[in-house]
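Forum: Protein Structure Q&A
Topic: Joint prediction for protein chains with partners

I've read a bunch of threads here and the consensus seems to be that you should model interacting components together rather than docking separate models afterwards. I'd like to see that in practice. Below is the full input, 732 residues plus whatever partners are listed. Could one of the regulars post the assembled result?
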Amino acid sequence: MDYYTSGRRTCAGCGPAIGYRLLSKAAGPNTVFLGPTSCMYVANGHQYLTSPYAVPWYHTQLGGGGAAGTGTAAAFRALMSKGKRKVEDINTVVYGGDGGFADIGFAGLSMGMGQDYKRLLFVLNDNESYANTGIQASSTTSWGATTTFTPSGRANQIGNLRLKKNVALTIAAHPGVKYVATSSLYPPLDFMNKVRRALDSGGPSFIELLAPCPKGWFFDPKDTINLAKLALETRAWASWEYVEGTFNLSYRPKKITPIREYLRIQGRFSHLTDGEIEEIQRMTDDEWKYWDEMDKQKRIVLPWIAAPNVVRGVGFEPTNP
Amino acid sequence: MNAQTAVPGTTTIQKKRIWTGTRSVAEAIKIADVDVIAAYPIRPYTGIMNDLAKMIADGEFQAEIVIADSEHSQFEIVKHASAVGARTFAGSSGVGLAYATEAIAVTALGQLPVVAVAGCRALDDPGNFGMEWNDVFLFRDLGWLVSWAKDPQEALDMTLAAYRVAEDHRVLLPHFIALDGAALTHISTPVQTPVKEDVAEFLPPYKPPYVLDPAFGPISKGQHIAPSLIGPEQRKLIDVSMKNSREVIRGAWKDYQRLVGREYSPFIESTLMEDAEIALVSMGAYTKDAIYAAKKSRERGLKVGVIRLRYWRPFPADELRRGLKGIRGVGVLDFSYSMGSPDFVGAFFNDIRSALYQSNARPPLIDFILAGGREPTVQHFEKAIGLVQEAARTGNADKIVHWLTLRGEDV
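Posted by a regular:
Agreed with the consensus. Here's the joint model:
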């Protein structure tokens, strides 16, 4: 059964929308969805008041995802424990973007992960930008990507100079956390199984889903799943699970594909020089050593990756007159 | 919704306690059997949460108390808990309220009957524990009901009444109870508590018209819309709810009066007004001092009365106009500012002047601004009475704003 259906106006090939559909299938009918402002708010609403949700859904403010999930779960537990509502398993699922969870709502997400509510799941659909406002950089935007806030220009040719924040690792740092995972839209069962395990984990849980965005990443809509697969095969994205303190990689490519294959079909990286792509390859390789080590040790080792040494252009560095 | 209380005389009255304003509100939250509480500390409202946390830890009553990471989260938590059908409570003060503004705004527009305390405090910077109203006034336009208590007893009463009014299906709006910082939150006076069983009829469990619960059905709430489609109609819903609340408030206090055997005039409290020629108008805890000053002035032959607004939203315009009928001079004790407003008056004064513009009789009005948190004394209020008396004698106030507690030249 689908609980995320027609009645929306998301773009062709929208990664977050595909993620929503998989999520709703896995979570099932006894679910309340909460949506912090994002594409998954604006594009899922419609000016004619149609709604794609076949389960209860309520908007929450951009920075309100952690609190909305917490308040909803708190209400269910209070009403059930005080005999005001029938006792049953209700899933509270917050589907937020990277702006909502990695930036403005980061503290609230952390607060929610520190509570002890069961069947409370936060899913970050990471399309690496503020997409509904016109593709502005967030703290999960990849190094070297152009966005409308980090354009490539004459003085700064690179575009985004911040390294992508690893949100899932920060959530894994919460003491006693039951379940943290990352996932990709490919293979679809990976994400759906993780949703089920997260909801059954016995505490608040978190999944970061890499969700390619045709509009923001500048690729042909037919390539969404292709990119989700390439992200894993080029090791641009590590899919893993952290269950009560035990780490496991979920996907280990048999043959390593060069990062160039992932970057070249995305317009947001089209301005990068061969040297800059080499730097991304170097960072990817450096980071993978950590994921590999974590998979061997079955526990988290904090990755540290050196940022590329780039000349930022005239006028960017402080100089004495 | 009208509760029929027991036969007069059969109400169980507990002995009086000596409680602060914050302790009184905590008691009301317990009596109201609130389900979800969201806490975050900031003076001077924090004591309520301290007391509630202890009550819950001691098993005195059962509720989810969520320790939030910020005021923004605090108000989002109760908003969403309310949407599921829980009875909720939050609160804050000063810049904490400012930080939560976004969540506070959407709670009203979502028509969720959250009840919260605003412990009035001066806004930063510099940090200032003094009492000002501008933190609460941030929310005067958004669809929150706001009542203003004068003492710990009324703080308790108003909290119970707030749930009753907010949850009425003709209203369904969130409700602030404003407590003047320090002067009410931290001052102890005798408080009489109704027992939970007696309150049950006055305040039955919250029955929302619809809830965010799979058992109810797949509703989508707060969908993004095209403004041309239903934008104005959605705003009008809040306007109508606010208008409806006046009747609901009257009914609630009528019933509450029967329950506790104390008399309450729902919207304005008039003291010494029967034969008054001039009046002071204010809200909150300092009204008691104003009444004391009025009594002292009466010993000198000045016929002064005092009107206290018990509700700020909905603003009791009709009641105020009636209350001031025949009055020849009005002084407004105003713990707010509104920088750059018409004639540079305070925000409180502006609403009062606005209400009296629709009146045939327009007595001279003087704004006594008590901004910055410095405590006014009875002498300040006596000075105000003298200035109003002079304006009433001449029929005109030549200076309409006085910063009463300011040291130095009041330019």
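Residues 268-403 of chain B form a domain with the Rossmann fold fold (CATH 3.40.50.920).
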